[in-house]
């Protein structure tokens, strides 16, 4: 039985204490209603994020004076004719940009003032970001910290990425709820951040 099949048998709403798979899967459909905000991890076109590297790509970046070694095929003849000096076009290279989540499900998140525990709300936000990321054809990964152990989810594309993260979130959350409050943390924040640093591909966004 797949995670999707299991979700069909679960109640449609969370009780605010446990992490409900059906409610996390709900964000897959809701993500299409979120407009991409400017300067955010999903603000570019599908799976295409502006790179700091300059080269011959799909998107025009700027025009600057020609320098020795520039590709003569990129000369902007209109600007050159208007200014009387040779200018060349620069293009931004388009690259896939992995997104990494750092999800805190430790005992410090085991409280809530109204409808949900903070840990459950964190799981919902992680699910939404995961579905938004894969909808933009980027890879999503996560480091999940619950005070007892650290779980790693390597960046993965398509539905596999969010589903793997949700499964790990539910395991980590259930483990945190079942632990005695007096039990000392076996993993520190510093250890969790080391996991994140080790797992992040170069150029990743961290949320």
* N-end to C-end Cα span: 31 Å
* Percentage of β-strand residues: 15-25%
Q: Number of DSSP strands?
A: 7
Shape by Cα distribution:
elongated
Tell me the number of helical segments per DSSP (H or I, 4 or more residues long). 6
Q: Strand pairing plus helix content: what structural class? A: alpha/beta
Radius of gyration in whole Å, from Cα? Answer: 22 Å
Oligomer: single chain
Overall average residue pLDDT: 76
Helix content, binned percent: 25-40%
Summarize the helices and strands and which ones pair or pack.
Layout: H1 3-8, H2 21-30, E1 49-55, E2 59-65, H3 77-83, E3 87-95, E4 99-104, H4 118-135, E5 140-145, E6 150-156, H5 160-178, H6 189-199, E7 205-206
Parallel strand pairs: 4-5, 4-7
Antiparallel strand pairs: 1-3, 2-3, 5-6
Features:
207 residues; alpha/beta; 2 domains; 4-stranded mixed sheet
Write up what this structure looks like.
The protein is elongated and about 75 Å long. With 207 residues, it is an alpha/beta fold. The protein is built from 6 helices and 7 strands. The strands form 2 sheets. Strands 6-5-4-7 form a 4-stranded mixed beta sheet, sandwiched between helices. Strands 1-3-2 form a 3-stranded antiparallel beta sheet. Helix 4 links the parallel strand 4 (99-104) and strand 5 (140-145). The model is unreliable at 1-11, 37-47 and 51-57 (pLDDT under 50). The chain has 2 domains: 3-42 and 97-206, no CATH class; 49-95, no CATH class. It starts with a helix and ends with a strand.
